[in-house]
Amino acid sequence: MAYFQCPSCGETAMRVASRCPHCGLIFSPDMIPPAEPSRLRQFFLVGAALALVVVIMLARMQNQPQAAPAATAPAESRPEPPATVSTPPSGVQPPAPAGEIAVDSPPPPTAAPPQAAPPRAAPPPAAPMGEQLQRYAGTWVNVRDRRSPSGASVRVLNPGEAILVDSLIGGWYRVVIGGQAIGYAYNSNLSEEAL
């Protein structure tokens, strides 16, 4: 409850009272001072005002146009390329004006057919088969299209799989399966004995 001082005796009285409980003075509406807002209400009003300011600032930021990148010039300021006039070589008839049919004009050029995709890595060239040795894959072994670890893998041998090899060069055996050379495997990945 809110209180105020009685103008006659100076004692406190409730703001809703119609007379002073101490001296009996009857309060008229002009004697009661207006109520001061409570601190909670003041904080609420200040918080609401701040929230409104933030909302307005965010709305203005979203409505601002985005700045164009400085590196590109607007379309109006870009110079147009100069027009070139080409003269047809002698013996070639210039194109007919729009609406007329050109007689003796060559057919329009056609688009080149799409090029075929490059073929997959070919198996190693057939070299004369030397003495073939039986080896076993010591682990999962990549058989590559050339004697290099960067060569494309053409097959993977399972651990313990038996194969025939020949022509050891630079630590790489040529792998022969079914009488055909299919690629190369590194010597240290192969074992002389079955696992």
Give me the Rg, rounded: 49 Å
Count helical runs. 1
Structural class: alpha+beta
* Proportion of helical residues: 10-25%
Determine the mean pLDDT. 76
Strand residues, percent: 15-25%
Largest sheet: 5 strands, antiparallel
Key words describing this protein structure:
single chain, 195 residues, alpha+beta, SH3 type barrels, five-stranded antiparallel β-sheet, 1 helix, 9 strands, 13% helix, elongated
Secondary structure blueprint with pairings:
Elements: E1 3-5, E2 12-14, H1 39-63, E3 133-137, E4 141-144, E5 153-157, E6 162-169, E7 172-177, E8 180-186, E9 190-191
Antiparallel strand pairs: 1-2, 3-6, 3-9, 4-5, 6-7, 7-8
Structure, described:
By secondary structure, the chain is α+β, with helices and mostly antiparallel strands. Among the domains are: 1-62, no CATH class; 133-191, SH3 type barrels (Roll). It is 13% helix and 22% strand. It has one helix at residues 39-63, and strands at residues 3-5, 12-14, 133-137, 141-144, 153-157, 162-169, 172-177, 180-186, 190-191.
Short description:
The chain is of the alpha+beta class and 195 residues long. The chain has one helix at 39-63, and strands at 3-5, 12-14, 133-137, 141-144, 153-157, 162-169, 172-177, 180-186, 190-191. The longest helix is centred in the first third of the chain and has 25 residues, at 39-63.
